[in-house]
Amino acid sequence: MSQTTKSIIPLAVLVIFWFLPAPEGLSIQAWHFFAVVVGLIIEPVPAALIGFAGISFVAVFGLAGNSAKANIAWALSGFSNTVIWLIFAAFMFALGYKKTGLGRRVSLIMIKYMGKSSLGLGYAVAFSDLVLAPFMPSNTARSAGTIYPVASNIPLIFNSTPDNEPRKLGAYISWVAIATTCVTSSMFLTALAPNLLAVDLINQGSGNLISWSAWASIMLPLMIPLFLLTPWLVYVIYPPTQKTSPEAPAWAAKELEQLGSISKKELLMTGLAVVALLLWIFGKSFGIHSTTAAIAIVSIMVLSGIITWDDVISNKAAFNVLIWFASLVAMAAGLKKVGVLDWIGKNAEVYLSGLTPTMLILSMLVLFFILHYFFASTTAHTTALMPIFIAIAMKLMTPDQLVPFSILLAGSLGVMGIITPYATGPSPIWYGANYISQATWWGLGAIFGALYLAAILIGSFIFI
User: Fold this and answer.
1) Quick check: 307 and 99 in contact, CB under 8 A?
2) What CA–CA distance (Å, rounded) separates 128 from 141?
3) CA–CA distance from 22 to each of 31, 331, 343, 442 (Å)?
4) Considering the entire predicted model, what is its pTM?
5) Are 341 and 205 in contact (CB under 8 A)?
6) What is d(CA 201, CA 192) in angstroms, rounded to the nearest whole number?
7) Tens-digit pLDDT profile for residues 349-405
């Protein structure tokens, strides 16, 4: 689809929606608001610009309030959202890992001590991701930006390239890397930015605020077994032809020698990351909000020279996400405010109310997961579907069921990234390495996607 076509489609939909009569039970204001949301999914221009333009358009036409003051207050509401600033701060954490070299050092240490066999290399790549996951909400920065530059060198040691014996080692390393980053993205609330966005949307829709520890209490028991099994399962289902790899630890040791001894900034970065994690888990007991902890530690990072103020203000990715997610949060709140979500919930209730509680929960979890085949962005998936699914759950589930269901629903966002070559941020990077063909990727995605979905469904029987 050309860029011109992508630009025309949302405008055409907007015009059609604008002049069509609103469905029964939905106001014309809500109907017009819903039309604007279509652009967020189609994304004809950069996503952050779409969100920014969307809130501007809604505010100009007065679709979110009854006065100019009410509309601009709504349009800017997302920029005061604590979750958005937590995501922004966490991007600075990722920058600290990169600038200090700590992320690279962690990966090399894993390879040095675990990489004597191909299976060991798989676990080295997996554990490198795991160590970084709680502190890096961008799995693209974590997997594609930190793990990939190190791991991509390993197959070359054994002359495994896309054109020469890709199955020797390169294909195995690539699939382990993308599969494990999907698991770790679901394991921790702070391991994937859409997790944090989903939690905020859940809070808006149901009034339930999900903490880091509440997320961990459900997702860790489900994801730890998956994490430990994944490199071995890949080794069995899609095995490398190279079984031993004594050269890899030697290469890692040489790279570590070139890095030199661990620096003071790396040690400080490690300490600050640990403090941040402890405050995210236990800070509430001391009256410290998780976002307060994050921005305070970012300030220390700048003052101590781990990163510079120029690094902060020039971080395009962080500011892009800040504007994008703040706009999405405002749009999602607007959908609820004008009555669109209540209208969808009421209509869905007619079709779903006949299901047993167990079948309702299972059906919604499966549908939410499978619909990701139609999205090239986990964020777009979250924005478009999470408010709707929560609105339906509010109508049909008991309060005791709602919280664990919401965590499982949001927790599936990470693991669903395995299903296609475009399903999550780092997928195009690992797919673009050309070790795995498109057909193989889709096949493996179906196998591992089914396995990961099964883990989420098992969780519904355990926790709901």
Assistant:
1) yes
2) 13
3) 6, 19, 12, 40
4) 0.81
5) yes
6) 15
7) 777 777 888 999 999 999 999 989 877 678 878 988 898 899 889 888 998 999 999
